[in-house]
Amino acid sequence: GNPNQVVNDISKEDETVIDSSPKEYILKCVMRLKLVDGKVQLELEWLDGQSRELMHQVMTFIKNKLTQSKK
Questions:
Q1: pLDDT per residue over 15-39, tens digit each?
Q2: Rounded distance, CA 14 to CA 20, Å?
Q3: Helical residues (DSSP H) of the chain, grouped into ranges
Q4: Domain ranges of the chain
Q5: Where are the beta strands (DSSP E) in 1-71?
Q6: Closest alpha carbon to 4 in 21, 26, 19, 20
Q7: Cα–Cα dist 5/15, whole Å
Q8: Among positive and negative, which fits the CA dihedral 57, 59, 61, 63?
Q9: How far is residue 44's CA from residue 28's CA, in Å, rounded to a whole number?
Q10: C-alpha span between 35 and 47 (Å, rounded)
Q11: Label partner for 45 (CA 20 to 30 A): which of 11, 56, 60, 70?
């Protein structure tokens, strides 16, 4: 497999799995910062990773941090 990929192997024999979520996440995306009509525009284009939803979470986090700094 890909050495950059986080894989979670859970044995079928082990019935007492407490936390099966990975501790690290891999997300490959293209980030574009543009200046459009005097406003900063951020675009994320998903390329690869565990889930596209993770990219949306990153976008929301960045957007929230940028709007907080304006206040």
A1: 565 666 767 888 898 999 899 999 8
A2: 11
A3: 52-70
A4: 27-70
A5: 27-36, 39-49
A6: 26
A7: 25
A8: negative
A9: 10
A10: 23
A11: 70
Phi and psi for 39 in degrees, rounded to 5? Answer: -115, 145
Report the amino acid identity of residue 18.
I
Residue 27 pairs with which residues in a beta bridge? 49
Strand partners, 30: 45
Mean pLDDT rounded to a whole number for the chain: 77
CB-based contact 5:25 (threshold 8 Å): no
Buried b (16+ CB within 10 A) or exposed e, 33-62: eeeeeeeeeeebeeeebeeeeebeeeeeee
